[in-house]
Amino acid sequence: MRSSELASLADVTVRTLRHYHRIGILPEPVRDPSGYRRYTIRDLVRLLRIKRLAALGIPLDKVAGLLDSEEEDHHDLLSDLEHELDAQIVRLTRQKTMLGLIRRHRTLPDVPPELARFFEAFALSGVSPAMNRIDREQSVLLAHLVGETGIEHLAGFYEHIAAPGTVEVVAELARRFDRLDADADPAVADRLVEDFTERLGTIVVEFTGRNGDTELIDKELYGLFEQYLRDALNPAQRMVAARITERLEALTGPSA
User: Fold this and answer.
1) Does residue 215 contact residue 209 with C-beta atoms inside 8 Å?
2) Helix or strand (DSSP H, E) at 11
3) DSSP state of 197
4) 20 to 30 A Cα–Cα from 216, which one of 31, 51, 94, 141?
5) What is the model's pTM?
6) SS3 sequence, 70-115?
7) Are 94 and 79 in contact (CB under 8 A)?
8) How far is CA 116 from CA 102, 105, 140, 180, 204, in A?
9) Which residues contact 17 (CB under 8 A, 6 or more apart)?
10) pLDDT per residue over 149-205, tens digit each?
């Protein structure tokens, strides 16, 4: 039979046959006087065996060894494959859960899904699109820095500041911070530092772990977050953010 007939019988493409020839798992038959490859029923059987092994997820570079081995015991390979599939199932299940959260809360797909349900409240705060973008980007960065072990704690922090009674305070302070120009009146900046510390300081200190406990974010990694703020904010906003950090540390003493 010709390559097109073999491919049709095995329900593969001729291109797949050529690929199998190139990688050496399906021997390439000698061409007949007319220049066509002539396959036998044994070639069909081998091709069907290749399809079966590939359908199980066995890498093609392992297939030839299985096909040509007389051994019946391939448990080690199959066990490794089973463990790999288990890991894939866990990843896919988590991915599906994350997509469900993103769709349910109608948020952007780049936002950590554990935080997605809180962004609707923040979006209504009245800050500029630029500040909304900064909030979103710093949330992405924070989620990465705290890692899987800290994301639940981070979500708890967002839950605190998105709660009724607190979210209005956050929104009002965010609007004032957003309005700070590069040459903002020092008195305006001073008042914002005082109000933030007084009204949100306890919640932020609890989140950052500046109470003698192990900090949620390693000090060196936290430097990346501070670098982001330096890049994203104007001079007045950077100054206010730095002063707020100093005031928060003063609430319980500097972190060890």
Assistant:
1) yes
2) none
3) H
4) 94
5) 0.59
6) CCCCCHHHHHHHHHHHHHHHHHHHHHHHHHHHHHHHCCCCCCCHHH
7) no
8) 6, 6, 11, 27, 19
9) 3, 6, 7, 26, 47
10) 888 888 888 888 888 888 889 989 999 999 999 999 999 999 999 999 999 988 888
